[in-house]
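re the bet — no i am not wrong, look at it urself. input seq straight from the record:
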Amino acid sequence: MIDTLSASSSSFDRIVNPRGSGGLFVLGILAVIIGLLIGLFSNNTGISVVLSILGIIAIVASFLFIIKQYERSIILRLGKYNRQVGPGMRTRIPFIESVLVVDIREKVREFKAERMLTNITYQ
């Protein structure tokens, strides 16, 4: 019984979901570095400026996340509880703060009655 319950659960069934990662931050740093290197070693400054601007936008976007109305969020700083925040646009420090999002909606699930509960046997 336990194996079938764990096998049927999906990511929708999870109560707490981690949100955000440092991937966007790293991508932004790489875009800025590549843009600066292209500008340094070539005469084409247009590509350099565009890559640098896109990198800065990615870095700024990595600090922001949105919590929906039906979610609450817990901020962990270096793995230790820091604060709890409600819905809206919030900020975090990539790689230092982890965000755990809790879905507070009620979820209705259909389940079949077990045979042991419904079958009355007399001995």
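see?? Residues 15-118 form one domain. told u. also Confidence is low (pLDDT under 50) at residues 1-8. so pay up
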